[in-house]
Amino acid sequence: MKDQYGRAVDYLRLSVTDLCNYRCRYCMPEEGVCKLSHRDVLSVEECVEAVRAAARCGVTKVRLTGGEPLVRRGILDICRGIAAIPEIQELCLTTNGSRLPELAGPLRLAGVDRLNISLDTLRPERFAAMTRTGTLRQALEGIAAAEEAGFTGLKVNAVLIGGFNDDEIGDFLDLTVEKPWEVRFIELMPMGPCAEWDRSCFLSSQAVLERFPQLEPVEARGVALRYRLPGARGTVGFISPLSHTFCAKCRRIRITADGRLKSCLHSREEIPLKGLRGRELEEAIRRGILQKPEEHHLTQRPSDTPRSMNQIGG
């Protein structure tokens, strides 16, 4: 299905929980968030039914997010249910990796095709300071478990933060020399806890390219501009919502853990889906697609959404 600007919307990001076992400083307050009541969160069956309705609207790719999706009770049932929908061609999941040692194999058996693993620093003390509750060892063991379970095409997501990890960019690039991963640098967005951070924290992807001119462009994939170091096994991707707005190519919608459709990450508008079934649910999703805005306004002001990232889905 196409939106009013002619973009074919075929990608759904479904948040299965707003909870997380980390407290990353750009995402969540230190004390965490007010836990949604059980009745306010989409059930396993409602998650699958929402995807089934979205598939009837043309969605073929689903990414499960959180919070941290692997802390969600019933996550494997959600994966199995979505993977069984004939129209869904690709089921992906974004995780901090901490629970992959026990869940990587079951996730693969449940039908998950690809994993993105968040990793903002390669230094143990910085990892602990950023996540407040996690360890670098957990993340690295999670990546190893994903590979052992047979996941290929792993993507390692690093949010670029000036004054925090900008001196590690070369270390991240080195990972791609020996590993067949795609290290993706994501520009920090002014939303949630970091909306009022100093502008020096918001590092552009262009600044990285200027510092590492040896990066050679390769074919783009989705909204990611991609590069490769000479002779490297892996690739380097850039997600640049601020410096290289990709709204014209955006083909995604989002459903939050409490069942509200967001046609744009940064929009205030939401369409309630919880409690809807069948044709009524499908029509609500179609309405959301048609209401998708032309672009965000992050270059002029912070995000319009009142939610933090863990409440929307990364």
Question: How would you describe this structure to a colleague?
Answer:
With 314 residues, this protein is an alpha/beta fold. The protein has a single domain, classed as TIM Barrel, CATH 3.20.20. Helix content is 28%, strand content 18%. Helix 1 packs across helix 8. The two termini are 23 Å apart. The model has no long low-confidence stretch (mean pLDDT 91).
Q: What is the residue-mean pLDDT, rounded to a whole number?
A: 91
**Total discrete domains:** 1
Tally of individual helices? 9
Q: In which order are the strands of the major sheet placed? A: 7-8-9-6-5-4-3-2-1-10-11-12
Rg, rounded, reads: 19 Å
What characteristic shape results from the CA principal axes? globular
- Determine the N-to-C terminus distance: 23 Å
* Corresponding CATH superfamily: Aldolase class I
Task: Identify low-pLDDT runs.
Answer: none
CATH class placement: Alpha Beta
What tags apply to this protein structure?
12-stranded mixed β-sheet, alpha/beta, 314 residues, TIM Barrel, 9 helices, single chain
Q: What order do the helices and strands come in, and which of them pair?
A:
Blueprint (H helix, E strand, L loop, with lengths): L10 E5 L28 H13 L4 E5 L9 H9 L6 E6 L4 H10 L4 E5 L5 H8 L4 H13 L6 E6 L8 H10 L3 E6 L17 H7 L4 E6 L2 E5 L6 E5 L12 E4 L4 E3 L8 E2 L5 H13 L18 H4 L2
Parallel strand pairs: 1-2, 1-10, 2-3, 3-4, 4-5, 5-6, 6-9
Antiparallel strand pairs: 7-8, 8-9, 10-11, 11-12
Brief sketch in words of this structure:
It is built from 9 helices and 12 strands. It has helices spanning 44-56, 75-83, 100-109, 124-131, 136-148, 169-178, 205-211, 278-290, 309-312; strands at residues 11-15, 61-65, 90-95, 114-118, 155-160, 182-187, 216-221, 224-228, 235-239, 252-255, 260-262, 271-272.
